[in-house]
Amino acid sequence: MELVDYVVLLRRRWLVLVLGGMLGGVLGVVSTVGQPDSFRAEATVFLSLDRGGSVSELAQGSSYTQGIIQSYVLLVTTPTVLQPVIDELGLDTTPQRLAKNITASSPVETVVIEIGATAGSARGAADVANAVASQLAVAVSDLEPSASSNSERIKVTTIAPASPPPFAFAPQRKLMAVLGLAAGLGLAVLFVVLRELLDTKVRTEEDVALVTEAPVLGAISERAGSEPELVPFSGDAGSPRGESYRRLRSNVQFMNLEGTSQVVVVTSSSAGEGKSTTAVNLAVTMAGAGARVLLIDADLRRPTVAKILGLVGEAGLATVLSGRAALADVLQPVGPQRMDVLTSGETPPNPNELLGSHQMGVLLQAAREQYDVVVLDAPPLLPVSDAAVLAAQADGALLVVNGSMTTRKHVETSIQSLLMARARLMGVVLNRVKGQVSSPYYYGPTVAQKPWGLRLRRSPA
C-alpha cells in the first residue's frame, strides 16, 4: 500500500479513529479517579563557610563548600534531619516513609540545595519543606567538628522559604486525558491498518489484481432494503445497482470478439455469493438490449432460478439430459422480451456426469443456433467440479466474488479449477460491494421508478 492508500483507509475508517481516541481519553481520566491530590512545595537553602572577608578567603570557602555539598544533599533525607521534623509537625509517619516524599538536589557548581516536599495539602507541603530546611541547618551545625574559631563553621541559610502551591501537581488529569487520547488514537490507527493488511477478503479491483490478471467486468453494490432483487426488463435505469448490471452486460458483450452466439457460465467460489441473482439479472439485461437469451439453471444440486423468477421447476435441464423431454417442451418464456428459461428440473443422482455428457454438448449447440446469448447458472467451484465441466464447454466463465466473504485463497483455488479444466475466465464480478460503487457513473432519475414485474409470456400459437 502507498501513502495515499493509507490516507484513504484512515478517512474511510474515521469513526473507528474517533471512537478510539474518545475511549482512550476517557480511560485516561478514569485512571486518575480515586487518586488523592498531591501538592509539592520547595525551599532553597544556601551553604557558606563563615571565614574571613577577604576575596581570597571567600573564594577558598566557596570551593570548600562545593566540595562537600553533595554530602549535605544526602543528609537531607536521613533520620537525623527528618525525625525532628516529624516531632515538630506531629506527623504520623516514620523517617523512612517521609524520606520518600522529600527530594534534595544541588545545581552544578553552586552551593545551593533545593529541598522539595510532597504532601496531601498545599500548607502541609510548605510546612514540611520549611521544617526540613530548618532542621538541615541544625544538623549541619551539630555535625561540624569543633574548631578554634567560630568563623571556620559551615552556615546554612534559607534564602527562599516554601510557600503553599496554588495547584496540585498530581494527578495530572488533563495530561492523562491527552495521553489517553493520543494512545487511543494510535491504537485505533494500528488496528485499522493491521486489519486492512491482514484482511484477505477480495473487496476491490486492487484485491482482484493480486490474484488474477482477469478484468473486473462489473461491481454490484449492496441491495437496499426496499430495492428489488431483479432489475426491470425495461431499459430505463431504475437505480445505480440496475445500471451496474447493464454495464456488466456491455462488458460481457465486448468480450465476444467474433460476434457469434455467446455461452456464458456464471459461477462463484462458494455458495451464497449471489451468482444466481447475477446470472438472472445478466440474462434480463441482455434481453432488455434486444438479444435472444436463454437462461439455464445448471445448478442441479441446489437450483434457485425457478424460485427467483417464480417459475415451475419440476421439468427442466435434468429432464432433457435424461431423454425424457425435448428442449422446446420445457422452456418457459419470461418477460416482454425474447427471453426463455430452462429450469433445473428434478435433482438427479449424477449431476456431474449429466453436465459433462454428450447430451449437454448437443443441448448447448442447439441453444447456440437458436439464441444470441446463453447464460448458465452453475454451482460454486470449490465444493464440486460441475462449474468447471460446464465452463470447458462454454465460451467462458464469470466468477462472482462476494467481498464480504470471499478470500484471495478462495479465488485462487477457483481460478485454478477453471484452468485445470481448460476453461476460459472471462472476468470477475464484484458483488454486494459496500457503498454505492456505481453512483459516480449513474446518470438517471433520482427517484427509483417502479420496476416492471416479471410475468410469463405466452408462446405464439
Automatic annotation (TrEMBL):
InterPro entries: AAA_dom, Bact_polysacc_biosynth/exp, P-loop_NTPase, Wzc-like_C. Residues 262-402 form the AAA domain. The keyword Transmembrane helix applies. Its EC number is 2.7.10.2. Keywords: ATP-binding, Kinase, Membrane, Nucleotide-binding, Transferase, Transmembrane, Transmembrane helix, Tyrosine-protein kinase. The chain crosses the membrane at residues 14-33, 175-194. One of its GO terms (cellular component) is plasma membrane. It catalyses: L-tyrosyl-[protein] + ATP = O-phospho-L-tyrosyl-[protein] + ADP + H(+). GO terms for molecular function: ATP binding; identical protein binding; non-membrane spanning protein tyrosine kinase activity. PANTHER family: FERRIC ENTEROBACTIN TRANSPORT PROTEIN FEPE, TYROSINE-PROTEIN KINASE. This is non-specific protein-tyrosine kinase.
